[in-house]
Amino acid sequence: PYTGPSAEEILRKRQQFLSPAVFHFFKNPLSLVDGKMQYLFDEKGRRYLDAFGGIATVGCGHCHPEVVDAIVNQTKRLQHSTILYLNPAIADFAEALASKFPGDLKVVFFTNSGTEANELALMMARLYTGCNDVIAIRNGYHGNAAATMGATAQSNYKFNVVQTGVHHAQNPEEYRGIFGSDGLKYARDVDEIITYGTHGRVAAFISEAIQGVGGILELAPGYLPAVYNTVRNAGGLCIADEVQSGFARTGSHFWGFEAHGVVPDIVTMAKGIGNGIPLGAVVTTPEIAKVLTQRMYFNTFGGNPVCTAAGLAVLNVIEKEKLQQNALTVGSYLKERLTSLKDKYEIIGDVRGRGLMLGVELVTDRQLKTPAKVETLHLMDQIKEMGVLIGKGGFFGNVFRITPPLCFTKEDADFLVDVMDYSLSKM
Ligand code: PMP
């Protein structure tokens, strides 16, 4: 049993010694001390079903024994920098990761986070094309450093510091988007941005396959193929940000972009790559990768032996335990059950997503789509009290984000929906 400090003590220390910008969702913040697969435990030993491990995209499940063993064994053997020396763990994982990609996407750069991965991807695209202009999608999230904060398109996450060279296209999503689900109309916006907003050439287009922070919004069908075509005609590279949608989460495919029938020039990833270990990566073609030989480029800990040992274990577990298939089966079932809640409760405006990356948008008026912000927070708290953790997102903070570990079962899905149903009935 846990014998450390209480939640109140931790909160007091956090308020005194940690960044005032860190936040928590709940009235009484949870102190989590243990994890096992899809479960989390607080300091009193109370169990919670984790339906939001996706924030770290813990794909295999918390403390999966094979991943833990890989981390512990490599830590005992050697932990060092990625640069200067050869090490088998780094090379083996790079090879295994490259094998998950189509076409020429075969060169891996490791980083420590999703932000770093996207920063690197944007810089490579700018170097490769000699252009500065980048196109991103409104409501997207790509990170919190200079270039990525520029590419991010939600005012909540943008500080008033210089962010140049980015144009933000209409968000091609069905629920609030201005063209409904007409992907080609949204794609024309990208065309017009290039025509009217640049000198006719661009460095890159970057987008998530499903917006995560933005509230689980899928791209309208037909959008990505048309935009990739337009961007490439303007000399630009297409970057897929797979930080949330990658690593089998969407169920139908290993990568989110695959559902759109496109092959990007650069793919970025983090979160799920290491089952919670700080690791990120950029995967691109040998030709594009060459631009980084113009100068010295390195990352001290990006892809160090311990993190890459974890990464390799994660790939093995996803395969061995058929987690992609599970994400598809359980995710489809869960989506169906959530959709049936929509028939029962007016407050549910939309249920969407793919695999185990699902969103439930709450509105106080279905016609006007008025965000039910206060209700969302209240319900999340109630759902937590009944032992289930879900996340929230969307620009207005009115979307439940359901991104559990990929080992989530049908029984877990039933429990989650029953708890949500009960909480909604008590509103
Ligand atoms: N891209 C996407 C799609 C993300 O969701 C996030 C994090 N929420 C990032 C990039 C940034 O990753 P990190 O927090 O690891 O820097």
TrEMBL record:
CDD domains according to UniProt: OAT_like
InterPro entries assigned to the protein according to its UniProt record, in alphabetical order: Aminotrans_3, Aminotrans_3_PPA_site, PyrdxlP-dep_Trfase, PyrdxlP-dep_Trfase_major, PyrdxlP-dep_Trfase_small
Named cofactor requirement(s): pyridoxal 5'-phosphate
Reactions catalysed: glyoxylate + L-alanine = glycine + pyruvate
Transmembrane segment boundaries: none
EC numbers on record: 2.6.1.44
SUPFAM superfamilies on file: PLP-dependent transferases
Lineage: superkingdom: Eukaryota
Keywords tagged on the record: Photorespiration, Pyridoxal phosphate
GO biological process: photorespiration
Family matches, as Pfam families: Aminotran_3
Single annotated GO MF: alanine-glyoxylate transaminase activity
Keyword Transmembrane helix: no
Family matches, as PANTHER family: ALANINE-GLYOXYLATE AMINOTRANSFERASE-LIKE PROTEIN, PTHR45688
Family, as annotated: Belongs to the class-III pyridoxal-phosphate-dependent aminotransferase family.
UniProt name for this protein: alanine--glyoxylate transaminase
